[in-house]
């Protein structure tokens, strides 16, 4: 309950402060419509990323005050975010993106009519128009991605698992000692927090289950943050580069090929992260 209250007031505070600064710097803006609060798509994206990013301190505060444990125990079993390990996980994350791109081209060539929705690829906006949005995306997306990992793969998984202690004395608690109920519940809530439908829902559920499982197997959120951030950076940079940033909030259905293509890509990432974790002797338990 405290986390929900903090999340509401922190995001509201960011929005109000942002609106005040906008009024002082740029003057009035039109009546908000849908997800568009400000007239610029880039400004709407930046405000949303900041509002999501402030969820991290909310999670840390709740862990410390309510659960009476070290705040950063949400991040990993060593009570901190292991930055070197996080950066190392970015290497297989790049491999995931490259493999996803290559398989996407191959599958589209084999099944050209799988995606029935027409897509406008746009055109290069030029370096001068791209550099500003690119820097903003590179700066803010990691914090947004980390915040979502702290909420769904960190705090939520741990909160559910806390009901299955070692001295479990009934069937319900014995079930919750396994990580799978927490992973399924947190992944389903992660999907519900987005606007995807159809095969895209299945794909994001698979993503959530994979990074959640890796978080448990590696004793921390670093591998999930790395893949989440790298994926989102590319997802925002591409429309920024092609003049389609006004559709950054669009989430809908996807073809079945999206889900099928992502299976080997996520499998590659999981295998690579576990191999690296074993070689680097990454701590799995406290």
Automatic annotation (TrEMBL):
This protein's UniProt keywords: Membrane, Transmembrane, Transmembrane helix
Keyword Transmembrane helix annotated: yes
UniProt cross-references to Pfam families, sorted A to Z: Rce1-like
Segments forming domain CAAX prenyl protease 2/Lysostaphin resistance protein A-like: 133-234
Listed InterPro entries: Rce1/LyrA-like_dom
Sequence intervals crossing the membrane: 45-66, 86-111, 123-143, 175-193, 253-277
Protein name per the record: CAAX prenyl protease 2/Lysostaphin resistance protein A-like domain-containing protein
Organism: Kribbella alba
């Amino acid at each position: 309950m405290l986390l929900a209250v903090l999340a509401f007031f922190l995001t509201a505070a960011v929005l109000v402060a942002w609106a005040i600064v906008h009024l002082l710097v740029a003057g009035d803006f039109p009546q908000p419509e849908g997800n568009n609060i400000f007239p610029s798509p880039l400004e709407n994206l930046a405000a949303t990323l900041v509002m999501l990013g402030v969820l991290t301190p909310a999670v840390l505060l709740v862990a410390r005050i309510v659960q009476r444990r070290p705040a950063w125990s949400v991040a990993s079993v060593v009570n901190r975010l292991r930055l070197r390990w996080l950066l190392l996980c970015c290497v297989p994350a790049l491999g995931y993106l490259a493999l996803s791109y290559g398989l996407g081209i191959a599958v589209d060539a084999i099944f050209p009519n799988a995606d029935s929705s027409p897509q406008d690829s746009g055109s290069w906006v030029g370096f001068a128009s791209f550099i500003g949005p690119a820097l903003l995306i590179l700066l803010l997306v990691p914090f947004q991605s980390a915040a979502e990992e702290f909420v769904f793969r960190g705090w939520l998984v741990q909160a559910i698992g806390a009901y299955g202690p070692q001295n479990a004395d009934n069937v319900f608690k014995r079930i919750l000692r396994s990580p799978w109920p927490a992973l399924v519940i947190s992944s389903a809530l992660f999907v519900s927090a987005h606007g995807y439908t159809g095969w895209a829902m299945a794909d994001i559920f698979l993503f959530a289950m994979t990074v959640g499982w890796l978080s448990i197997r590696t004793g921390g959120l670093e591998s999930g943050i790395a893949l989440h951030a790298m994926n989102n950076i590319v997802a925002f940079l591409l429309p920024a580069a092609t003049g389609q940033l006004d559709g950054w909030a669009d989430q809908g259905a996807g073809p079945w090929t999206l889900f099928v293509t992502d299976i080997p890509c996520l499998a590659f990432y999981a295998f690579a992260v576990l191999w690296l974790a074993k070689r680097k002797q990454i701590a799995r338990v406290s």
